[in-house]
Amino acid sequence: LCLSSGFLVGQGPWLPPPLPLPPPPQVAFAPPCSSCPVTLCEFARTFHPEPGTYHVLIIHPVKRCPVPVCFTLPPGCPSVHLGKRELVFDYGCQAVTIQFKVLFGRVKVSYD
């Protein structure tokens, strides 16, 4: 039985060479959002001090509620010290201290 397909028996159609598959999509991990509150310990562990002004939400270590914290870091490479209720960026000749007060859940940022 011969079907009219335009090809000779034993010969298949000429197909173009296969195209390479595109590379799989890159999975991008979003950085933690600045509006998502984090604990003081998480913030100290993940924050990379760069010069500039920062606005972050940190969960108050005593009151356990998110509080806005605004602070400015100078240029330099500080050593970071974490306490139960404070975070200190020590630049040697100066320091930026973020203290979480027990009364009223306030935050005090000092530049010494």
Provide a concise account of the structure shown.
By secondary structure, the protein is mainly beta. 6% of the residues lie in helices and 34% in strands.
Describe the model:
- The structure is a single chain.
- Helices cover about 5% and strands about 35% of the residues.
- The termini are far apart.
- The protein has a domain at about 40-110.
- The longest helix has 7 residues, at about 40-45.
- It contains one helix and seven strands, in the order βαββββββ.
- The strands form two sheets. Strands 4-5-6-7 form a four-stranded antiparallel beta sheet, with helices on one face. The chain has a three-stranded mixed beta sheet with strand order 1-2-3.
List the helices and strands and how they pair.
Layout: E1 38-39, H1 40-46, E2 52-59, E3 66-73, E4 79-82, E5 86-90, E6 95-100, E7 107-111
Parallel strand pairs: 1-2
Antiparallel strand pairs: 2-3, 4-5, 5-6, 6-7
**Regions with little confidence, pLDDT below 50 for 5+ residues:** none
Structural class of the secondary structure composition? Answer: mainly beta
User: What portion of the residues fall into strands of 2 or more residues?
Assistant: 25-35%
**SSE sequence, one letter per element:** EHEEEEEE
Counting DSSP E segments of at least 2 residues, the number of strands comes to 7
Which features does this protein show?
single chain; 112 residues; mainly beta; 4-stranded antiparallel sheet; 3-stranded mixed sheet; 1 helix; 34% strand
